[in-house]
Amino acid sequence: MNVSEFSNRTGLSPHTIRYYDKIGLLDDVQRRANGHRSFTEKDLSWLAFVKRLKDTGMPLANIQKYAQLRKAGQSTLQARQKLLIDHADALGQRIADQQTHLKNLENKIAFYQAEINHTNPID
């Protein structure tokens, strides 16, 4: 599939896809005789994983590091696992922090609701 179709299927802009290819996130993208990129289902699966890492807040530099380790093969399994464990730990902490923020907001909303109910009692 060409960049346009790949873009449609991934939800990323063609510019982003070309950028990801340029910085080494995409693994040896095939080229047609005319020089245009040609993507496979395997590329779709990999990019879905990259997007998931990005959506969970992994910095692009760490995603690049993961991609480099992946390209290096089986000898990097432990390093890849550690990178993902570290990311999962950081994500868990951010989620816990966000849960605390949410609880604080809910408490403030409840306070305002109580004040509104106290000011405007229902008969």
Automatic annotation (TrEMBL):
Keywords: Coiled coil, DNA-binding. InterPro entries: DNA-bd_dom_put_sf (IPR009061), MerR-type_HTH_dom (IPR000551), MerR_fam (IPR047057). Residues 1-69 form the HTH merR-type domain. Residues 88-115 form a coiled coil. PANTHER family: HTH-TYPE TRANSCRIPTIONAL REGULATOR ADHR (PTHR30204:SF98), REDOX-CYCLING DRUG-SENSING TRANSCRIPTIONAL ACTIVATOR SOXR (PTHR30204). This is Putative HTH-type transcriptional regulator. Gene3D superfamilies: 1.10.1660.10. The keyword DNA-binding applies. The keyword Ribosomal protein does not apply. GO terms for molecular function: DNA binding; DNA-binding transcription factor activity. It comes from the Bacteria.
